[in-house]
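Throughout this chapter, every protein is written as a compact record of paired, labelled lines. An example of such a record is reproduced below:
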Amino acid sequence: MGILSRIFGLKPKTDYKKLLQQGAIIIDVRSAAEFSNGHIKKSKNIPLESLHNRTSKFKKDKPIILCCATGMRSGTARRSLKSQGFEVYNGGGWLSLDRKLQ
């Protein structure tokens, strides 16, 4: 990482396609109603408020990609899961992430 990257906090872009090839799962933390109106194929819906009750089902050796409507709830979920030792990525809004996976 170069000096400008360190100064401005720039990070390399995440290759979400590669993460999926490595066995990552996509968790959409929106409500069930939001999820039913559209979602990424093969993503799992676990609303943010239920996430802490379901972490025992996740494997710590598999990356987790989180998404929601805008990236705010998935950011909150990322911090929580990261503090528990998971490899977690905030994919941001589900529509944007879906386009990156095409």
